[in-house]
Amino acid sequence: MKDTGGGETYLNWMMSAWGWTLSVAALALIVSLVLGSLVGILRTTPNKLFVAFGNAWTELFRNIPLLVQIFLWYHVLPSMFRSLQQVPSFLLVVFALGFFTSARISEQVRAGIQSLPRGQRYAGLAMGLTLPQTYRYVLLPMAFRIVIPPLTSESMNIIKNSSVAFAVSIAELTMFAMQAQEETSRGVEIYLAVTALYFMSAFAINRVAKFIETKVQVPGILGGGK
Description:
Blueprint: H1 7-42, H2 48-62, H3 66-80, H4 89-114, H5 118-126, H6 131-146, H7 148-161, H8 173-184, H9 187-216
């Protein structure tokens, strides 16, 4: 993009790139929370097949670098599955980032559930609840309260990790910075502005998560009041 309207053009371009960054991060966060929570739950069930599947999922997606996964989603999988050729590259990046982060979230959800006393599971079953109901009403409400801090970190990491989307030409903040710096030779100002936007985005998530953590805190758990 050429600057035909002064600095305002680049400001609009940067705001558009920020919007793409937030869009990728928000959708990837939804994907990762849904898949990561489900896989984390499966890894704590008595069903050995579910546990094996959850462990395989976690080890697969967390041990392959994110950039490699993005290239796999963008170049390799569409050549193997032609239906993916019709999917916008934006969504392919969302899936890559979401699946990558889901492996990390699954580990945190698993740890949160397993940190609860076993008596809670047995008590739920003894009351006549089914296993899914025991998870829904007894285990998960407490487990998710415990894992809010690490989930906050993962949410902030998604904002930062979205920068690798530039590798497949998604017009997010990092790509904007690289292209604008080449066109204007004002790399210092551009990268400082982009850095500020990344910081503001991640810090906003941190504050929202802190507010949620305070609201759902149970006395005696995670520093809750007595």
